[in-house]
Design brief:
24% helix, 2 helices, elongated, 4-stranded antiparallel sheet, alpha+beta
Length: 104
């Protein structure tokens, strides 16, 4: 089974929906991989925080969403982590970037 299918299996076995996941192919040679390398985005949606008194506290990530996203990230990383996971946010979502590949 190829790495992409293993990623899809990890998603289908998780508590996350496939609509929260995007798989981006990477340049295998640049990442030191043989045949496959991917950056997988796992998104959770921000929720409004009505108790916020600072603009940067106006949204938050639901703890259940965070737990599900981290569990999925860890199961994907177990397939062949090639770089550290990254977390970033935009106006509506938090995105975890997970890098996996078949290291040479």
């Amino acid at each position: 089974m190829n790495l992409r299918n293993k990623i899809l299996n990890a998603v289908s076995s998780s508590e996350m929906s496939i609509r929260h996941v995007t798989i981006h192919p990477l340049d295998t040679a640049a990442w030191g991989c043989k045949d496959e390398a991917y950056c997988v985005h796992i998104r959770t949606f921000k929720r409004d925080n009505p108790e916020a008194d600072k603009p940067w506290d106006s949204t938050y990530e639901d703890k259940d969403d965070e737990r599900r996203a981290v569990a999925l990230a860890e199961s994907i990383e177990a397939l062949g982590k090639i770089s550290d996971r990254e977390l970033f946010g935009d106006s509506d979502t938090y995105t975890r970037q997970v890098y996996v590949g078949d290291k040479v």
